[in-house]
Every structure is written in C-alpha cells, then in structure tokens.
TrEMBL record:
Coiled coil: none annotated. The keyword Transferase applies. GO terms for molecular function: methyltransferase activity. SUPFAM superfamilies: S-adenosyl-L-methionine-dependent methyltransferases. Keywords: Methyltransferase, Transferase. It comes from the Bacteria. GO terms for biological process: methylation. InterPro entries: Methyltransf_25 (IPR041698), SAM-dependent_MTases_sf (IPR029063). This is Methyltransferase. Pfam families: Methyltransf_25. The keyword Secreted does not apply.
Length: 250
C-alpha cells in the first residue's frame, strides 16, 4: 500500500483551477519543449500524470504518452481532455505499477516524486523508471530543493506563496524528512479554504544515489526547464539520468 495522499473527487475537480499558474505558457511550454526533445521519436511515460497538465500538450507535439496515476478521480478529469486511446493510463502507484512496452523517456513533474513518503518507495520509483526504459532512455524529475536553509532558530514553517488569493507554507521534520504543504485560498465568495498535502523531501545527492541503485547515470542537472545553470543557490532542479546502452533488464 502506498504512503501517498490520495486526491479525491473534490480535489481533482478543483486541481486545474487551483494550479492555474502552472498551466501558464511561460511555465509549461519550456517543460514540454525539454521533454519532447528528450523523447525524440520514442514513447514517453509520465509518473503521477494527474489531469494531464504536461501529458496533453506533449501528446499534441506528436509524442506517444502513457501514464501512471494513483487517483482515479484525477484520471477522470484527464479523460475530459483526451481519450484512453490518445493517452492510456494505468491506475496505480508510481513505485510499483507497470505499463506495457518500453519507453525512451520516463518523467515525474512538479515535485510529484515527493508524494511517495518513504525512502524505500522513492528508491522503488527510480527502479520502476529504469524497468520501463529502453537502453539509452532517460528518467527526468522536476523537484524543488528543500528550503530548510530559510529557517531561523525557532521558526517552524517556510512560506512558498503569499498573494491576495493564496497563502502557502511548508512545515518540515528535519529528522524524518517528512513535510506538509499548507494552503489557504480565498474563494470568490470571500470565504477561505484550507488544504494540505504531505511529502518526503529529497536532496539532489540523495536522488543521485537512488538513481545509481537503479542502474542509472546522471547526464544533466539544471535549475529549471529553461536550462538555467544549477548552483548552490538554486531552489529547484531538473535532473536527467540515462540508462546505459549495455543495460540488460533491471
């Protein structure tokens, strides 16, 4: 049984609206460009495909995209956009669920690997990606760098969004690497809605070790989809690992 939170019907129905900023062309287009380039002529597999924020425009570029998604309500929202023939999806968790065939690209966008809240599951996610890749294929994750450097003594939370419509902050357990994102949203009627999601944060170096355990080799790390150089001050990273050409099974 997965440790991930499960998006229910209400959360799935509101997802595209509450995440509207992530659908903006200046955010989404560089991601699709980056992934389409890596996929080339081969098929792609998205872990935690959700409502298809990335998969739908990537498929529109001519990439054959399949997905794995834990939440059936999220898949139901995806089906309002594309059919099962256009973007097939297996309902299951990204650490263990499998899809028929082999892929030139497997990817996890927008911090979703953190939804797996144990290290063992995250390791299995990397192994699952490797199993689905052809030799020479790539596994890509988009992930934030934990913001714990912002904590002054005695502070218990780090803000990540402060607008007139949305206030969000993360709380962290430094021992277990568990965290919770807290969201307060002002609705059109003036009321406020609270929501929370849980995660396990991962450092870039920890990701590299998980990749090595899965037989993958780091090929590239940049700070964002626009390929800004990754530095010690970067707050996010796009990491690309490659399955060696001489790999046999996983």
């Amino acid at each position: 049984m997965t440790s991930s939170d499960l998006w229910d019907e209400d959360a799935a129905a509101r997802y595209d609206t509450t995440s509207a900023e992530m659908f903006a062309p200046h955010v989404l287009d560089p991601a699709v460009d980056f992934l389409a380039r890596l996929a080339g002529a081969g098929p792609a597999l998205e872990f935690a495909i959700g409502t298809g924020r990335v998969a739908v425009p990537l498929a529109a570029r001519g990439v054959r995209v399949s997905g794995i998604e834990l939440s059936q309500p999220m898949v139901d929202q995806l089906r309002r956009k594309v059919s099962a023939e256009e973007v097939p999806v297996v309902v299951g968790d990204m650490a263990t669920a499998t899809v028929s065939g082999e892929f030139s690209l497997v990817y996890v966008a927008w911090n979703s690997i953190g939804n797996l809240r144990t290290q063992d599951e995250q390791v299995r996610c990397f192994q699952n990606a490797a199993r689905h890749l052809v030799p020479g294929g790539r596994f890509v994750i988009e992930l934030w760098v934990p913001g714990i450097r912002r904590f002054p003594p005695g502070q218990s939370a780090v803000p990540f969004a402060v607008t007139d419509r949305h206030v969000g902050f993360d709380t962290y357990d430094m021992v277990t690497q568990q965290g919770t994102s807290h969201h307060y949203r002002r609705l059109d009627d003036g009321t406020t809605r609270y929501g929370a999601s849980n995660f396990r944060y991962i450092w870039p170096a920890e990701c590299d070790l998980m990749a090595r355990l899965a037989g993958l080799v780091l090929e590239q790390r940049v700070a964002d989809w626009a390929q800004t150089p990754f530095t010690s001050d970067s707050e996010s990273h796009i990491s690309v690992w490659r399955k060696p050409m001489d790999s046999v099974g996983s």
